[in-house]
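Researcher: Please translate sequence to structure tokens.
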Amino acid sequence: MQTANQPGERVTLTNCDREPIHVPGAIQPHGVLLVLSEPDLRIETVSANAALFFGEPPAYLLGKSLATILQPAQLRLIHQCLQRDFESVNPLPLEIRRSGSLLNCAGILHRSPQAQLILELELTTGPAPQNFFDFFQITRHLLSRMHQAASVSDLADLIVQEIRMLIGFDRVMVYQFDPSGAGSVIAEAKRTDLPSYLGLHYPDSDIPRQAKQLYTLNWLRLIPQVEYQPAPLLSTPEAIPSEALDLSLSVLRSVSPIHIEYLQNMGVGASMSISLIQQQKLWGLIACHHQTPLFVPYELRTVCEFLGQVMSLELVNKEVTENLEYKLAVKSWQTQLIEAVTQADELGAGLVCDRANLLAAVGAEGAAVCLNGQLLLVGKTPTQPEIEALLEWLPEQMQNHLWATDALPAAYPPAAAFKSVASGLLALSITKVPPNYLLWFRPEIVQQVQWAGNPDKPNQVELDGSITIFPRQSFDRWQETVRQKSYPWHPYEVDGAIELRSAIVGIVLRQADELATINFELERSNEELDAFAYIASHDLKEPLRGIHNYSTFLLEDYSEVLAADGVAKLQTLVRLTERMESLINALLHFSRLGRQELDVRSLDLNELVHTVIEMLDMSQSHQDVDIRIPRSLPVVQGDLILIEEVFTNLISNALKYNNKVTRWIEIGYLDTAPDIASLKPNHLPPEASPPTTVLYVRDNGIGIQAKHQDTIFRIFKRLHAPGKYGDGTGAGLTIVKKIIERHGGRIWVESNYGEGCTFYFTLPT
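Model: Translation complete:
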């Protein structure tokens, strides 16, 4: 029989996690297995031990009808069961013919995952409950006591005592799995002369992944004789090959040789396992050991399986009531925290306003709130640089916006440096864009763990250099000091964190909806304002032009008649209408900026700035101005005409507001963004998606006083009298700001009064 992973490969602990234990190609010999065709019930596969049951060799039975060994009435019984749920009919009371006599058997019917009809037969021996009243007598008092048990521990203690009394095994244990897959014995009933396994831990590798999967498919597994000789399966040529027949649901399925060696090392002669399943996951096992072979009839095994199912149901109730006072307190803290977050105007403030609840809500000693690039620390936490590095690593670990561990250094080695405050981590991802997180930390708790023998398996180096691992041979109590681990996160603590995330996401969505509404109204108001400004300024130009023309006509036709004072007043009126027209034109231009579409293209700023300087040379003389461009300017994305206007306004202002003997203007860009934390909030460049270039125009002019730096971008705001530093409408910087913002950028100013100023602005690259 080949039971390894590949032809010729020996099964060891090194590869047992890949061992196909569901297709062993053999069974345990305390019963016989038949694969039957439908509907004629012809024997396609039979176990090699068939002669012990039927008195005929397996080869004789292959291809024969089941009528060869069963009476017609029993065949009709099997036919009647084929359309029913096999769980409701098993075991079938059958009689098989052998050498002219009849043997009583328990027949167990099921279909394999490949839809093959399988009949397994076990000889009926010894007393067993045969009817409902026997079953009722065994279970009625026990069920009541199980329901009344106050905790999981009490329930486990009760079940091991009752099952040991029921089936007579030397040792019965309840074995509970932890989230990592390792297990521990939480209850035990045994012979007084046997050593105790209570409280001992077993590594995850003791029960491989595929074995745990089979425990979820089969509530009960019996090995009546550990040191048995497997009975291979023999098949007809047209049947599924015996080595490929899936025996996942078989009660006779042969056991992995690794598991047999494991039981032998423990001194076990017979074993039985009853699965404890909660929410479709393997919670634990009721493990039964006997030092000598021991067969448990199918009917009695059914009682044990039923008790295991009842205990599985009771586990939910018991775990809910365990630590009830703490659970209620945690729920109260979580509710208070969610209420505080919901009522807060600002999310970060709502989370940290009650620091005690933020930590108590999940039983943590430290927390970090990471929102919009800000990091708020509460309680005992790693340093800010350590958390920032952790946040860079964390996104790949998140599953359904959550990640929790009680052994952070094992998953993230740099955490060993701060294990004293963060050996445990519960992380919530609030939003991915931008990346916002809520982290809770638990400190290291040094623990003494009692193992059933050294969990590190013995091994040997083979001739080819490979390492073969063997099952442990000693199960004596072995103590290990466990470090870099915290107390585990309980499910109800994690559930509370998930509930908090839901509340936070609701707040974020509500705020986003409110912001969208505000933006919509603001956009509508801006459009109406632009339209009003355009219409108003356009309509104002006609009467203004009439006033200007009539004033000019009066000067031309009646200047000799009018007194000097009258002429001066008419000249003032003409100047005022001209200034008014300039203001209206500026307003018209500003209103158009909000409505016109941008013609965005790649712009070489070296060419653009050179063109602007040439145009300024044509309009005014500034041979005494040194225009510096320290290095080649970058290429940006923008509207050519509007970006030219930005540089024209900024360079013109730098020329105009400069009374120094030696004047200079510098145009350049920054390699990195300035320290925005030092800038005034209303001048901060946005956290736009990169890449973005920060450009500047710097001069040594008159500068701007600090008290005026917040107002210079307001429309028609002038800091000097109209006649001083030339004429102007005061709309230039407002138009520049509008253009920059239309390109998704920001503009701000730095200045020392009397020494000059620097205008910074951002453009997409």
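Researcher: Any highlights?
Model: The first strand starts at residue 26 and ends at 27.
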